[in-house]
From TrEMBL:
Pfam families in the record: OCD_Mu_crystall
Protein name, entry field: Ornithine cyclodeaminase
SUPFAM superfamilies: NAD(P)-binding Rossmann-fold domains
One BP term from GO: carboxylic acid metabolic process
GO MF terms, alphabetically ordered: oxidoreductase activity
Family recorded in the similarity comment: Belongs to the ornithine cyclodeaminase/mu-crystallin family.
InterPro entries linked: NAD(P)-bd_dom_sf, ODC_Mu_crystall, ODC_N
């Protein structure tokens, strides 16, 4: 005999399978566009959110992080790891799941996979930032690092900015071939390059999205010409960067949340008082983003909790019309709120009957 499950015990759960079904039902580019809109909406109410740098547990192998935030009505958090060595073991470098909850009663309202969703929200955030920071006539992008994030970046920039040519480079040529194969038929002109230097030639936007947990120099100063927008995605924890310091000194730098980015981003290479601009201020019209065609802009992207909050909020809204979720018996809900032990005893009795 099984106990009857209370409606209050049930939390909608989006599995990996249902997340894939949801993305494909909406359409990848349409999903990225909708996700970008949700992210931008929440950036525009930035001051209403609780904000804190993510809580990180670092090891020699990688990092495990919790990313919480709340707008006073909803609370959200994401669990995410970053373990570059995982690829050699047949595992993902990054995995994640997230929760959205009701601030009023503390009950979870959604539990979702976020490995796929994080890739989508990272790409959508990159493209949102570029709409404010890249030159308006940008059509060519270089992507250096052609791993799990690369296709999402290309499609987000196509959908939101009209990018139609992507120059690809990775230390592993097989990764570039994988990316080109996945993007074939999307309407993007794809060019395989043999070096990072070759990839950035003629590019209006340069995206760096590598995984190694180390100080690296993916871009050197001589590779970045005037007017370029740099979308630096890969530097996202202490001791992990992609850009030569001289590039930072030539660029106007835009960040999500300075207390977190100064710990994890490219600007960990700079003094703590080096000037940066918060992205939400540009979106809100408080600060000018791109000022002229010659300016080098750098989005030092490390990912912030509000973006995951936006992604979970967006997914939850889509579930109402698609039904692509499962009911998860997650919360104990005794008949009498103070009688949790009695619930256990009654279940035991039911098992015997």
């Amino acid at each position: 005999m099984t106990a009857e499950i209370s409606k209050l015990a049930i939390v909608p759960f989006v599995s990996v399978e249902n997340m894939m079904r949801l993305v494909l039902k909406v359409g990848v580019e349409a999903f990225l566009t909708g996700l970008a809109q949700a992210i931008e909406e929440d950036f525009l109410r930035w001051e209403s959110f609780d904000k804190t740098p993510r809580v990180a547990s670092h090891s020699a192998d990688g990092v495990i992080e919790l990313m919480p935030t709340s707008d006073g009505t909803l609370y959200g958090f994401k669990y995410v790891n970053g373990h570059p060595k995982n690829m050699r073991e047949g595992r993902q470098t990054v995995t994640a799941f997230g929760v959205l909850a009701d601030v009023g009663n503390g009950y979870p309202m959604l539990l979702s996979e976020m490995t796929i969703l994080t890739a989508l929200r990272t790409a959508a955030t990159s493209a949102v930032a570029a709409r404010y920071l890249a030159r308006k006539n940008a059509r060519t992008m270089a992507i250096i690092g052609n791993g799990a994030q690369s296709e999402f970046q290309a499609l987000a920039f196509k959908a939101l900015l009209g990018i139609d040519k992507v120059r690809l480079y990775d230390l592993d040529p097989a990764a570039t071939q994988k990316c080109m194969g996945n993007l074939r038929g999307t309407g993007i002109e794809l060019i395989s390059c043999t070096s990072a230097q070759e990839a950035v030639e003629g590019a209006d936007i340069i995206t760096t999205v590598t995984a190694d947990k180390q100080y690296a120099t993916i871009l050197t100063d001589n590779m970045v010409g005037p007017g370029v927008h740099i979308n630096a995605v890969g530097g996202d924890c202490p001791g992990k960067t992609e850009l030569h310091k001289d590039i930072l000194m030539r660029s106007d730098i835009f960040v999500e949340y300075p207390p977190q980015t100064r710990i994890e981003g490219e600007i960990q290479q700079l003094p703590q008082d080096h000037p940066v601009v918060e992205l939400w201020e540009v979106m809100a019209g408080k600060v000018e983003g791109r000022k002229n065609e010659q300016q080098i802009t750098l989005f030092d992207s490390v990912g912030f909790a509000t973006e995951d909050f936006s992604a979970l909020r967006f997914v939850r809204e889509k579930l109402q019309t698609t039904g692509l979720y499962e009911d998860l018996d997650l919360l104990a809900d005794p008949d009498e709120p103070r009688d949790l032990y009695g619930m256990l005893r009654r279940f035991e009795q039911g098992m015997k009957e």
